Amino acid sequence: xxxxxxxxxxxxTSIWPALALRAIIKVxxxxxxxxxxxxxxxxxxxxxxxxxxxxxxxxxLSGYDIVREMRSGRFELTRIGRYAARDTRESVADFVRYxxxxxxxxxxxxxxxxxxxxxxxxxxxHGSSFFEYAGSHPEVGELFDSAMMSVAPLYGAAVANAxxxxxxxxxADVGGGSGxxxxxxxxxxxxxxxxxxxxxxxxxxAPQVFGDEKARVRVEAGDFFETxxxxxxxxxxxxxxxxxxxxxxxxxxxxxxxxxPPDGRVLIVETLLGDKPxxxxxxxxxxxxxxxxxxxxxxTRVDFEAVLAQAGLRAIRVIPTSAAESIIxxxxxxxx
Length: 336
Prior knowledge:
The chain is of the alpha/beta class.
């Protein structure tokens, strides 16, 4: 058995293989290996790289089941590693690139200052909120959007499979970005119609996202801090509220509540914080990311119930999905 210090050392150095994975995506190695196995010399020749460096990084990643070294000396992508190639269906390459960007990592280096002040480390480093920064740096905003689009199908299908949307139409996806979540639901329910609602820049990719579903979608530009789209029966808030503190989350919920019909539902899709301590959870991980990046947070069911009550809503049930996310089904809170 290894000394316990090794567990700390493994955690402390876990960023190294993550950045190595990002490197083989950036220089094209992952895409090249997706077509066929190749030796480090072939990769160096074809991509203009340094052969010995290529070999050393690939051997590192072979220990993480990203690539496999063959007896011939060639390397191939594993079943897991193929999702690091851009052309693989449901690739997460853009998310890997986003996670390792210097502007993304720098706040984590200053997390100690957040512990002292409560101010998101992103604001300490960059002097503005994340969303302001992304708006003024188009390349950041584009990569962030691409990263979110790369992981959206993973939970979009899970939500569509976990909840019965057969009586939910019309469905308004509030803050729905490019519409990947709404697309997954409409594909699973071909009789449903939807509304995609977000800021003009966020919905700009929608025409490329929707295929045959396009005729069943109304794309509407707007600000969820000001209003919500009218005329829906079900309002979907997917990965929206965790970006904001309770005060701003309450504004969003109140705008949705204003448009909600008496028999309507609000579906909140988030990674819930659990009540079981001392274990790894996706919720704790993304909550720490929220702490570093924005003024929002992940919440427990009790946290949500408190905000929902102020918005005139009540939690009916929590529905788990096959992904890390849960669905909180909410309805109107009627006056006594």
